[in-house]
Amino acid sequence: MIVSILAPFTFGLTFFLFGMYAMRSGFQNLAGKKMEEWMGRFTRTPLHSFWIGLFATFVLQSSSAVTVLTIGLTNAGIIQFTQTVGIILGTNLGTTVTTELVALKLESFAIPMLLIGVALWLMPRRNIRCIGLVVAGFGLIFLGIDTLKVMAKPLEQSETFRSLFLESSHSIWIGLITGVIFTALIHSGSATTVITMGLLSHQILSMETALAIVLGANVGTCFTAVIAAIGTNTASKQVAWCHTLFNVAGAIVFLPFLSQLALVSAFLTDSPSMQIAHSQTIFNLVCSLVALPFVPQIARFIQWLIPDKRRPTDLTFRKKMVSSRWK
Length: 327
Prior knowledge:
Helices cover about 80% and strands about 0% of the residues. By secondary structure, the chain is mainly alpha-helical.
């Protein structure tokens, strides 16, 4: 029983994460070199920052990667903390693009996409090779999903596992914490969401428990950013904790309304996987749109919460240096 669960879980998760890495590498080589320049130049307003965050997350296929990149730019003094709040809101929405694509159930195209991607990668031209990485990455992601489905059958038959999730269905907080911990361990909220989709489609989880796990995954994805901010300047720490506190606040606010969120997603589609994807999109879209008009207030609150202990003269000098770079 344990082997029949662990083997497909390990291989499926490996395929999925490696596919994400391959796709991210392909996109990075196509547009990643300009990403820092775009993030430095086109984040003058909260709305511009929001779109840059959304686009960057789609390109890099990881909200954690974009947040870590933002921390690096802030630590280098290229952008200021106030410019990063909009980016953070955009990353939360951008990460739902992958989930929506995954929910389309394109697993039957996994092997053809993988073979096409490898064929393109063997081509001499650099751009075609990068496109090949992206295509092969998508193929590996769908292959990983197909492999993860294999573990659902023995899980469905396991009384221990059923009783565990039956217990967690009585408390959505357990689902939330499960999502946080698992995502923090594997550093991928998308992977956690995909596994949750598989369990839900086999009726191992209730919809509310599944949604609680997805909300937890949104919080768990901040763990990488918090680690990346260790040893950096105050502005970088403010970026990491702004991302974390925003996702925690959103999860706590939405937690009592999971039944309503489930009803809305069920109205939109009959597919359990699509319901999860739509719910995550609705959650992130509502949170981002509600917060976007209050970006200056959010920035001031975070700066009050994590104050910069440097002297005012040092701050003035740093700001002059940053502004002179872009003149």
